[in-house]
Amino acid sequence: MGIRTSDRIAGIPHYEPGLTMAEVMAGYGLTSVVKLASNESPFPPLPEVAAVIDAGLAGLNRYPDGAARDLRDALAVCHGVGRSQVTVGNGSCEIIVHAGVALLDPGSTVVHADPSFAIYPHLAAGAGAVGIAVPLAPDGGHDLDAMAAAVDERTRLVIVCNPNNPTGVYRTADEIERFLGLIPDDLAVLVDEAYYDFVGEPDRGRVAVLARTRPNLLVTRTFSKAYGLCGLRVGYGIGSESWVDALEAVRQPFNTNHLAQIAALESLRHPAAIQARVDEAIAERDRMSAALREMGVPFTPSHGNFILMEPPDPGMDARVLHEALLRGGVIVRDGSALGCPGTLRVTIGAPSENDAFLAALGAVAGIHTHV
Ligand SMILES: Cc1ncc(COP(=O)(O)O)c(C=O)c1O
Hints:
This protein has about 375 residues and is α/β, with parallel strands linked by helices. It folds into two domains: about 130 residues, Alpha-Beta Complex (Aspartate Aminotransferase, domain 1); about 220 residues, Aspartate Aminotransferase, domain 2 (3-Layer(aba) Sandwich), CATH 3.40.640.10. It has 13 helices and 13 strands. The strands form three sheets. Strands 2-8-7-6-5-3-4 form a seven-stranded mixed sheet, with helices on both faces. It has a four-stranded antiparallel sheet with strand order 9-10-13-12. A two-stranded parallel sheet has the order 1-11. A hairpin with a 5-residue loop joins strand 9 and strand 10. Helix 3 runs parallel beside helix 10 and helix 4 crosses helix 9. It is globular. The termini are far apart. About 45% of the residues are buried. The model has no long low-confidence stretch (mean pLDDT about 95). Pyridoxal-5'-phosphate binds next to helix 4.
């Protein structure tokens, strides 16, 4: 016999995590694998950050600072706002979930793109609200006009994922600003910039500047990707005081753990080292893109630390290719788990990992690679 639950949760899709390295090694009898499936950083935390984490262990008998004052103050300085315009969370994912809890009611709607980050449909399901999933434009980016058209008086939240996961397509700050002009000024908009660091465009970061003064805008960022801290879970949001107040009302008191707070704070002290890692990821993304092009592999040019690609041969089933890569010791994400059947999403890893992927892909597809 089970337990009594809310009817609402029957509609909540379970988040499907990717395969772990241990699972793939055990399942395929391999002694090593390359994991390019979860858009993680190939770099461990900076040495200075690792040292701060080590030193912080001794204080774990105490609760963390529930208001995350030091980290929020540091982020406030970076973004030219006061602490009251900064929220931090157990990963930016938690802040996104908080937005659903704080803003949605049964009967209200949340507008987001599809396919996009897998967590967004959970928000509506969790609140008994209605999720309006607006198909992406043909280029794989948000169809902002269609999203604006999907807004009505019931809409409480619009989420824009920029660059979009899993396609990697970026909408410029001008395009986002124009979109903001199409919707009511009091409708909450969350721009999820988890992959902001990897954007190669000169206007990168301007939407967060808009969030300093726009009453309805919140921009979320994360320490999980460029900063290599996804295992610790820490992300943040910059927005209006009313946005941050709404999120603060629903967060649990000690949502961001002590090690995460001090590690994020220390990471902010080393912008040049982080940028060097980002530059390497972008250079590797360019190299991977060139190699895929040379192999005749269709893919969507990406502004993230990942690339969404199709099999080299249109007759090849993407799931068969996924399986063959696993057998070859390379874990990528099956696009069908991301709402993109017929594709694979490969994370940009270290040069040797990317070489392993290209070699395995070439071997499966019978293509000679020059890596
Ligand atoms: C678009 C997008 N937003 C948010 C997140 C969550 O990141 P975090 O680790 O900060 O919760 C991810 C993680 O992959 C993502 O792809």
